[in-house]
Amino acid sequence: MAEKRNEKPVAPPSLVGEYMAEVQKIEAERRAKKKFRIVEGFPFWPHEVVRDAIFICFFTAIMFFLGGFIPYYLEAPADPAGQPHIILPDWYLLWSYGLLKIAHPVELFGYTLFTAKLWGVVLNGLVVAPLLVIPFIHLGHSRRPVEDPVWAGLGCGGLMLAFTLSAYSVNQTYREHWPWIADFIGNYEIDAWLTMLLPVVAFFIAYIPLTWRKGIEGYENKLSRNYFRIR
Amino acid sequence: MADAPAPEATPKPVVPSPAAPPKPAAKPVAPPPASGPASPTKPSRKLTMTDKVNLQAFAWFESRFKLRHYAQGLRNFFYRINMQFPVSHTERYKLRIIWYWYPLYTLGSLALLSFVIATITGIILGFYYVPSTNTIGITCHGETTSEAWKSIGCKIYSVPFGFMMRQLHFWSAMVMVAAVFLHMVRVFFTQAYKKPRELNWLIGVGLLVFTLGLGYTGYLLPWSQLSYWAGTIGLKMALATPPPAVGDWVAGLVFGGSSLGQDTLTRMYLLHVFLLPIITYTLIGLHIFIVWIQGIAEPH
Question: What is the pTM of this model?
Fold first, then answer.
């Protein structure tokens, strides 16, 4: 029944209809000779478009809501003489500022390879550069975190690094606002150690359960037998 | 009568013209069906003068504007939306696992949407913004300010919906940065950057960088305390770029010298309203085009 409904309607027996039928037949013959590219993935239309339309309406409303109810007022005008107590960039650049702040001079056998400022700038590049090579060094057919726990762990570690660097860049601020954090963590050096160690912890927190889950015999097959069949 | 021209590729076998019968070269390669009322050479009934005129007119338009493509497109659209509800990937391949993280697959669209909203509101803000650090004789709320700060901090309040436009611009920028970042996280964890989508991942990294650049240049424009001191950080980073000659050159190119001032604001303005949006829109177009021809990565 559904297939019958999905059939294209038969052209009405008019002259225009005959014309259209003839032209379409010729075009179909032409098209049949061509080879078509095989697309891996599900179609942009209508699957993606229908879903997106719903989300676009919803999030436009959300943005109007945010704009209407959470006002953002400008700071005071720029004053080159009056440096504020705490200088911070916008929230999405805090990780970069955290890298600048955490960078120490790099010394090897008494020689200074990088000054702190230079090392901070180089670290910014070192954090972004791996993104460019990920697709070329991560090969294979896995598509789920459980299929490749190492890379899932690396992703969690990266996310945690972005978070801890952002937190490190504002550590002075939150220590002033919530003194109990200073009592709990200790001095600023421990902040730096946490910034570097928590990503490693996050790696293992993601890696160990996923490896354990993957190790269960037949896990993938039980989970999606059909998926592995079609691929 | 004979002014219905046939391009080489477009045969017009059905147009009956007693003066010029259809050429055999224009016929389809396959032999025409033996029977059927829709034979091209023999119309199903005798043509009256009105029929001929109508058909000639239709063929004239059709051969030029390809009306049938649009008609067919509309018809397909109608049948798609009325007769076929989109089948999910899980349903189509009868997958046993559930991957209902589909909301995460629209983060890219959310980024585009917020960028479009930011563009529209940004154009409206641009009507009133003055990229000048000049402070002579300008006061707002009793204090001396730059023209840039005044145009955004004071003048915008006197424009109908001006404050709302700035609010929308600010919040759409926030949403855009967050959406781009989360989109990237989603692509990473579903490993959608693998073959054949490496190039699109690289374009996406570029788009992330340009989004951050748009945000940075954007919050420098009002020339507030945040702008000035964030600009100072950026300037110091640019100056620290190795080697020193390159650092000076970068600082001069992007920030207009080794100190912040009118040159900085002019450059940031040009970057924010002209250069970065054009590059970003071009990359977005390319990004979506590649998604279009490759399909979405399987959300199995």
Answer: 0.71
B262 and B192 inside one domain:
yes
- Whether B12 maps to a domain, the answer reads no
Q: Is residue B17 situated within a structural domain?
A: no
B168 touches chain A (CB under 8 A): yes
φ, ψ at B43 (rounded to 5°) = -60, 155
Instruction: Determine the Cα–Cα distance for residues B175 and B117; give it in Å rounded to an integer.
Output: 11
> Given an 8 Å threshold on Cβ–Cβ distance, is B236 in contact with A117?
yes
Structural domain span for residue B267: 102-294
Residue B215 to chain A, least CA–CA distance (Å)? 8
* Residue B88 vs residue A137, higher pLDDT: A137
Residues 6+ apart with CB under 8 A from A141: A231, B194
State what percent of residues in chain B have pLDDT above 90.
38
Same domain for B29 and B140, yes or no, is: no
Q: Indicate whether A26 pLDDT > 50.
A: yes
Q: Tell me the CA distances in angstroms from B25 to A120, B1, B8, B9, B96, one per residue in order.
A: 73, 20, 10, 11, 55
> For chain A, which residues make up each domain, given as ranges?
2-69, 91-230
**pLDDT tens digits for range B34-69:** 444 445 566 677 888 888 898 888 888 887 887 778
User: What are the pLDDT digits (tens) for A57-89?
Assistant: 889 999 999 999 999 888 888 888 888 888 888
Which amino acid is it at A100? L
Which domain CATH number covers B213? 1.20.810.10
State whether B227 and A78 contact (CB < 8 Å): yes
